[in-house]
Specification:
Elements: H1 3-16, H2 30-52, H3 56-79, H4 83-102, H5 110-131, E1 132-135, E2 140-143
Antiparallel strand pairs: 1-2
Helix pairs in contact: 1-3, 2-3, 3-4, 4-5
The structure holds heme C (HEC).
Length: 157
């Protein structure tokens, strides 16, 4: 897919989506990061299962949204002086681009698609292991304590 076509498609998806509210915004606060991560998670999971079902065209549309939102989180980490995390955003968007490339091959090789899905998932998990904490009882997630120096707009109980 060309860059131009990708952008047109993305615009169409974002207009159609209910979560278009953060679409035009940069990600500054921890609350905004959480919203963005949820969108990334929803769209990436969907791209994953559609890839497994070999519905590649739809998988690609979902993947583009995940990639676009993940890329926005770069601002958050940079603003909070976490260049290490920002680098992981860059590495992970590159892994999502690699998956996009596999989904754009003619003909598409299902094994190579699955390989790229695994690599992208591993990139997400590397960052989560370093920067995310789970609260298993509540089933919620947070930024690990001490990673950012200010609460960044999140209400703490
Ligand atoms: C730069 C590091 C980083 C990368 C890369 C990253 N995440 Fe996250 N993610 C986080 C952090 C930190 C949180 C915790 C934020 C929160 O939920 O408050 C999080 C939370 C999440 C959540 C839980 C959101 C919630 O609170 O309900 C999901 C789902 C998620 N990420 C999916 C993904 C997926 C899928 C990818 C890869 C395509 C990915 N993330 C890549 C750092 C990252």
């Amino acid at each position: 897919m060309t860059g131009a076509r990708r952008r047109v498609l993305l615009a169409a998806v974002l207009v159609a989506g209910a979560s278009a509210t953060v679409a035009a915004q940069k990600v500054f606060t921890a609350d905004e990061l959480r919203v963005v991560e949820r969108i990334v998670g929803t769209y990436f999971e969907s791209a994953k299962s559609l890839s497994a079902a070999q519905d590649y065209e739809t998988a690609k549309v979902r993947l583009i949204v995940a990639r676009e939102y993940l890329a926005r989180s770069w601002t958050f980490w940079t603003r909070h002086e976490r260049g290490d995390a920002a680098k992981m955003v860059t590495a992970t968007t590159a892994a999502l681009d690699a998956l996009d490339d596999r989904l754009s091959e003619v003909p598409i090789d299902p094994a190579r698609v699955q390989e790229a899905v695994q690599e992208a998932s591993a990139a997400c998990e590397t960052c989560h292991a370093a920067f995310r904490v789970e609260h298993p009882a509540a089933g919620t997630y947070d930024i690990k304590p001490g990673i950012i120096s200010e609460p960044a707009g999140r209400e703490r109980p």
